[in-house]
Each structure stands twice: as structure tokens, then as C-alpha cells.
User: Fold this.
Amino acid sequence: MEYIYRFRPVSRLLNEDAVSGELDSQYIFFAEPQSLNDPLEGFKYVYFSGDKIIWRNLLRHYVRCLINDFSISMISRPDEEPSRLIGVFANAQDSPPAINEINDEVMNELDKEPVIKKYFDILGNGRKISRPELIGHLNLIHFSALTAILTTFKNKGLFAGDLNFYAHAARDQISKIKLVLNEVSEAGEFSKELERVLINTYRLITELQLRNRYKLDASDQHESWNHLLFEYPESFAKSLDSLIYPEWYVACFMESCSDSSIWGTYGGNHRDVCLKFKVDPGESRPTLELNYPAGLNNAGIMHNYIKIPLDKISYDKNFVEVDFFRSLGQLSMPQIDEWYRSEEGGFSICAQEMRSDVEAWRKAYWNNFVESSKIKIKAWDREQEWRITLHSTINDFDDPNTRKIKYRFNSLDGIIFGINTVMADKIKIIRRIEALCKEHKREVFNFYQAAFDDNSKTIKHDLLSYIDVGYRDSTHSL
Assistant:
């Protein structure tokens, strides 16, 4: 492969200051997967399979996060939108002693209800549990955990509200847990039917949440409190993903720009343009030279121009499976210890691979991460996508400006105007390229015009050979 293509809106390429646009500054923007048009970008089938130790620590961690968010909800405004990204990195080492004391007291309060401990012991039998099922389990113990927190805060004079509603909801959930335990006892295991009931219950609760919120008057809605009461288990379960892998960002390219529907979608109804990049074939994968983040110093992120391989998207592979309890790669060693160690000092079996051969564990861990970013469902296969990803365990790319990665101007072979690109935009782009050619002393830059080819029924692009804007020693005009 000699070229790759990247569709871009004219508005992103050029800014009025002639400096900060993608073309002005010759950068490629790496986007958050959530901002792309496929909701399954980077999807991983995360499942939960572990022993009694790790499930007990998951419950303790859930309680810790719930305590933190309950504390925030008490001081939030009624109309204040809560963060649905739970602070799942919370841990005992970084928490004030008073919070750790409350965490222990709440767990002691929960332990007064033996069916909860028994329930989590059963979850610790090593069976694979999906995220929807996990949410179902958390929904069953949520009001017990919340009631224990409210009781503890009330005993300390930190909460003055009535507990009757929460206690009643907790008793109702305890009754349901007992029914589940009875069924498991009779069957000897969690049946497939019971799994389906839990997952369907989660979906039903989601629907009822929507209905109840719809029926509430705006004046009755306390956003943080409603989230705490009814949405928290789902938010927690989804937020756990951040404990597995670092945040990642992506720049997308295509193998071809001949599909009219692609021009319609990504080329702004054929009004925008397509950048045509030259790539180095490489030994195994094509590469593009970028001023890529290479480390961190006192001045911030360091960059070096290096050849970055492009990954081809697969449209026929299954999504990657990730064992959550054995993939906690974003945690520090003290945090990992908190997840894997029992109250008696023993270690969960889930820590075995990491503790016995950390290099083999790390290799498998990163292979899963890389593979998950290269898989899309077959419905997207007409894109013929290649991509470069950006991530780091050291650098923070939360600021979008840190994700503007420069490329060599000579790597940009040319720009393809869409069938409907307006004349004014074409002139602006040509003039900006002319200035860049002078700046970089580049003698040849190619402009192309997209057009429909009646024979192939595709979009071709013809070289505009009379548009000559390359660098010359003497003044040269079109």
C-alpha cells in the first residue's frame, strides 16, 4: 500500500488565524473513541470470574465508592448533574482515616445480614459473569449498602434524614436474594435461567428509571440523589473499565476514497476534502512518520519524529474477551494488594498469574488491549479502515491539545476536493498550501478533483495538473 486517505471537514483544516487549523499546523487529531460514530469502538467483552476473596473486595470497593458519592450528593445542588463516571480508583491508602473507618463500619453493618455474605460467596465460584449480570447482582444489594451507609452516617450525626424508605427497599431486596439463594441451592449452581432473569431485571429497572424520571416534576428532581438511588450500580459497573486499560485515542484512515457513500458520510456530503498521505510500506505494516509522544520531562510531554505503524481493522473477528479480575493493569502495587488480599492476609487466586510470571501476564494484557482497538463489526467493512492509536501509562492526553500530533509536510501527497467542495474553500486551501510549500521549500504538491466514474460506478480523483503551487526560487504564479 502506497497511500492512505483521511477525510476532513474544511472547517477543521483551516482557521481564520491561518495557524491553528489541522492543515495550518500540519497535525493529525487523535479523537476519543466515544466521539466516533460507532458505539462499539474498542468494545471488549469484560467478564467477572473470581474467588470469594476478590468478590468480597469488590463489595468493599463498591461500598467505598458509594460512601464517596453519597458525601458529594449531600452538598450538591438539586439541579447539579452528577458525574456518572464513578471514582473507582478510590483506595484505602489515599483516603482519610475517617473515611476508612466509615468503610469498615459499613462493611460490619452489612455483615449483620448473613445472606449478603453468602450471596457473594456463591458469586466467587469462578463462574463467568457478564457486565449486565453484574449490574443485576449490584442492584440486589444496593439498598442494603446504601442503608448501611446512611445508618453509619446517622450514628455519627452526619445525616438527619428518615431511614424508613431505604430500610424497606433493603428488606425487599434481601427477600429477593433469599429466593435466588434457594434456587441456587436446589439447582446446585446458578442456572442459565437465573442468569437471564438477572439480566432482564437489569433491563427492566433501566426502563422503569426512565419512566419514573419522566413522570417526576422538574421541581422534584434532585439529579445527584436520583443517580445515587437508582442508577448507581450501572454507573459503577461501567466505570470499572478504567481500572483495566489506559484511555486511548485514535486517528482513522482509509485504504481507498472511491466509495460515494463514504464521501457522503465522512466527506460532508462531498463538500469537504480528503487528505492523501504517502506511507512507508514497512516490513510488516505501513508506517507514517509522526512527531509522537516519547516521554515526559519537567517541561511536559517530549516528542520525537518516528515511524508509527498503522493497524488494519478486522471486520470478521470476535470481540476480545477480558477477565476483569485478572486485568487490573491500571492500578499501583498498593492498590492491587488491596484488591487481591483478604482480610486474613491471604491472596486471591486471581493474582496468581501476575505474581508468578509478571512478564507473561503483561504480554497477554497488552496483546488484548491492542487487539481490542482493531476490531469492528462487519457492517463497517466498506470503510477499509486503517488506524493509529495513542495511549500512555505516563502521559495524560485528556487535554485535546496534547492529541494534535504533527506529521511531516512531505508525507502529505495531496488534497482531494470533493464533488461539491465550494470554490471559496478550494481557493483558501490552495493559498494555504502555497504558503506551506514556500515555508518547507517543497517544489511539488498535488491537488485532485473527485468525480463520479460511470464505468466503475465509483468516485475517482483526477490530478489537477495546472494547479502549480510548489516552491520556486523566483516568484511563480498559477
About this structure: The chain has two domains: 3-32+247-319+375-463, 50-236.
